[in-house]
């Protein structure tokens, strides 16, 4: 049995797949299962996978019978992983050669359910990289207090200042066997991460950024893409996770700020009629939020709260000028 399964979800990734695969097969930790779930690509992705598999027996290819999306491919990987630990890599990204070794040492040393990691942004236009942190290392360590933590010991704001992306982490396979990625085409990482955060008895962390997220790539999810409409469903699913664990009251102010921060950002990413539709949905979501049970002192410390109030007074033309997003 290999020590670690690295799962790669593959769909129409021929432009980036070589870089991704090379970063995985050249890990300093060699005892790997490389599980590639091919989601019925219409380009040469499958040919590339099969070529690599000829020369590296660690590569296993699972061919989906129909295109099912990222959530389904990741769920397939979880159920088919043969190793005690699993990490995920998207086919257009790449990883440090030390990532598997470092995170494996971390999770076994601290006996955690998963390791939280940071990542770097690789700008596909400029070819430059930069660290992507939502909270400084000093503030993060002050919040958690130890080399490991859990939802009970961490302050209520913390999960909303952690990267929700699945790919910067390493998990015990058994820990996530009963946690599924939901069938939503965007922000599927969020409800999965929040459930992991709330379920874990022990979370450890690695502050070094070992995952490289490709930014500004061709075909990224921007513009008049109606998949972005599912951003609202993703936030509703996030709330259901906290409610299911019976802890929504503890987190509700910070969740509200996170929710509208994401919805404002996603709406700003769109263009044309999709942007107008999302703007109306956003305004309605703000209007129908009853703030009487919320601690306004917490909300007023964050600029998102004032953005919410401002958006209520904007028409679409003004919003379209003021909120211009990127990818």
What does this structure look like?
With 327 residues, this protein is of the alpha/beta class. The protein has 2 domains: 4-215, Alpha-Beta Complex (Spore Coat Polysaccharide Biosynthesis Protein SpsA, Chain A), CATH 3.90.550; 226-235 and 252-322, no CATH class. It is built from 13 helices and 10 strands. The protein has helices spanning 17-25, 45-55, 70-80, 99-110, 137-144, 173-176, 189-199, 231-244, 248-269, 272-287, 296-299, 303-312, 316-322; strands at residues 4-10, 32-38, 59-63, 85-90, 94-95, 114-123, 129-132, 148-149, 170-172, 203-215. Strands 1, 2, 3, 4, 5, 6, 7, 8, 9 and 10 form a 10-stranded mixed beta sheet that branches. Helix 7 runs parallel beside helix 8. The chain is globular and about 60 Å long. The mean pLDDT is 94.
Quick structural summary:
The chain is α/β, with parallel strands linked by helices. The chain is built from 13 helices and ten strands. The chain has helices at 17-25, 45-55, 70-80, 99-110, 137-144, 173-176, 189-199, 231-244, 248-269, 272-287, 296-299, 303-312, 316-322, and strands at 4-10, 32-38, 59-63, 85-90, 94-95, 114-123, 129-132, 148-149, 170-172, 203-215.
Q: Total strand count, please?
A: 10
Instruction: Indicate the proportion of strand residues.
Output: 15-25%
What is the CATH topology of the largest domain?
Spore Coat Polysaccharide Biosynthesis Protein SpsA, Chain A
Straight-line distance between termini: 39 Å
How many H/I helical runs?
13
Mean pLDDT: 94
**What top-tier CATH class of the largest domain fits best?**
Alpha Beta
What coarse outline follows from CA principal-axis ratios? globular
Radius of gyration of CA atoms, rounded to a whole number? 20 Å
- Main sheet overview: 10 strands, mixed
What is the second-level CATH architecture of the largest domain? Alpha-Beta Complex
Helix content: 40-55%
Order of helices and strands: EHEHEHEEHEEHEEHHEHHHHHH
Considering the protein shown, what is the CATH homologous superfamily of the largest domain? Spore Coat Polysaccharide Biosynthesis Protein SpsA, Chain A
Helix-and-strand structural type: alpha/beta
């Amino acid at each position: 049995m290999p020590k670690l399964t690295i799962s790669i979800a593959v769909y129409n990734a021929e432009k980036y797949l070589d870089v991704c695969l090379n970063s995985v097969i050249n890990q300093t930790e060699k005892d790997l299962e490389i599980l590639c779930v091919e989601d019925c690509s219409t380009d040469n992705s499958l040919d590339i996978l099969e070529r690599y598999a000829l020369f590296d027996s660690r590569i296993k290819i699972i061919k989906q019978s129909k295109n099912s999306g990222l959530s389904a491919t990741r769920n397939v990987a979880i159920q088919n992983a043969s190793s005690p630990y699993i990490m995920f890599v998207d086919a257009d990204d790449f990883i440090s050669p030390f990532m598997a070794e470092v995170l494996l040492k971390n999770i076994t040393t601290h006996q955690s359910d998963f390791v939280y990691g940071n990542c770097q942004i690789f700008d596909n236009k400029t070819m430059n990289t930069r660290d992507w942190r939502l909270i400084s290392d000093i503030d993060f360590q002050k919040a958690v207090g130890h080399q490991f933590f859990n939802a009970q010991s961490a302050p209520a704001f913390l999960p909303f200042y952690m990267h929700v992306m699945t790919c910067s982490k390493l998990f015990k396979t058994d820990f996530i066997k009963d946690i599924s990625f939901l069938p939503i085409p965007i922000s599927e990482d969020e409800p999965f991460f929040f459930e992991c955060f709330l379920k874990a008895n022990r979370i450890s962390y690695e502050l070094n950024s070992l995952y490289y997220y490709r930014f500004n790539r061709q075909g990224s999810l921007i513009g008049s893409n109606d998949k972005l409409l599912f951003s609202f469903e993703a936030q509703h699913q996030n709330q259901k996770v906290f409610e299911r664990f019976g802890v929504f009251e503890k987190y509700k102010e910070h969740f509200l700020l996170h929710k509208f921060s994401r919805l404002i950002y996603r709406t700003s990413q769109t263009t044309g009629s999709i942007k107008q539709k999302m703007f109306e949905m956003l305004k309605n979501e703000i209007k129908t939020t009853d703030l009487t049970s919320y601690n306004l002192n917490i909300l007023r410390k964050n600029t998102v709260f004032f953005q919410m109030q401002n958006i209520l007074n904007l028409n679409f033309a003004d919003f379209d000028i003021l909120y211009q997003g990127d990818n």
